[in-house]
Design a protein that fits this description.
- With 249 residues, the chain is mainly alpha-helical.
- It has 12 helices and no strands.
- The protein has one domain (38-245).
- α8 packs across α11 (194-218).
- It starts with a helix and ends with a helix.
Length: 249
């Protein structure tokens, strides 16, 4: 159990743990713990947010610091995927040409806009939330966004002939999907009750729609689109929690 959790945490963050996991069996066990690793990251962010508050940081400054802390703790991995996906999908090209753009290590204008928009919106949404809603939002966005990668990998094919994400996608079995989903639903319920369950379903819907969009663009998903899906899911969760807290839904 601990080996799987540390493997998930080491893959999804800069924490130097679980890096010795290799092989499809290890990857399958690791992915089961994606939701728990996400919850751990959310807990770290909640702790930092409380610390910034005790230090007298205004809400906007604290929100910006937490947003940057998340980017640092994840090594910018998902942000990189978001930028590459935006550059490819909005390049005006099609099929293999999009994949070539996404593999280019240089960031383009659409990738820059996507990164800036993502960080600005996260900061603004977090700043608009009060203490309890902010903590719940941080926990849920890290928990459910990491879980969303599992159903995406189970439903949609890999778009490249070869790549780093292929071994993960090929390792996703029914037990991985069922156990990770049970964990995600259970902890979402612990954090937010019935609203957490409904939000989980909504995140699945966003994941499915983005996966369909990606499949139309490039014939499937890649590691970059999985990263983009995680970032999109985080923004979606923050937006829904904000609306719920302000009587919008």
């Amino acid at each position: 159990m601990f080996k799987g959790f540390f493997g998930a945490l080491g893959f999804l963050s800069i924490f130097p743990v679980g890096r010795d996991n290799r092989g499809s069996a290890c990857f399958s066990r690791t992915m089961i713990f994606f939701p728990l690793a996400g919850l751990f990251l959310g807990g770290v962010l909640c702790g930092l947010d409380k610390l910034f508050s005790l230090c007298g940081f205004p809400s906007l400054l604290s929100a910006a610091a937490v947003t940057l802390a998340l980017a640092f703790l994840t090594g910018g991995m998902h942000l990189d995927g978001l930028a590459d996906t935006a550059d490819g999908f909005f390049s005006g090209k099609s099929g293999p040409d999009i994949l070539a753009v996404m593999r280019d290590p240089h960031i383009g204008s659409m990738g820059t806009i996507a990164l800036a928009g993502d960080l600005l919106l996260k900061t603004a949404l977090l700043a608009a939330l009060d203490g309890s809603s902010r903590s719940a939002a941080l926990l849920l966005m890290c928990l459910l966004s990491r879980w969303s990668a599992i159903p995406a990998m189970a439903i949609f094919p890999y778009a490249r002939l070869e790549g780093k994400a292929r071994v993960f996608i090929s390792s996703v079995g029914r037990s991985t999907v069922y156990l990770s989903t049970f964990a995600a639903l259970f902890f979402a319920w612990v954090v937010r009750g019935r609203e957490g369950i409904l939000l989980s379903a909504a995140v699945f819907g966003v994941t499915f729609l983005f996966g369909r969009f990606s499949s139309k663009k490039i014939g499937g998903i890649t590691g970059d689109t999985l990263g983009a899906n995680i970032e999109i899911s985080e923004l979606f969760i923050l937006f829904v929690v904000y609306l719920a807290g302000n009587g919008g839904i």
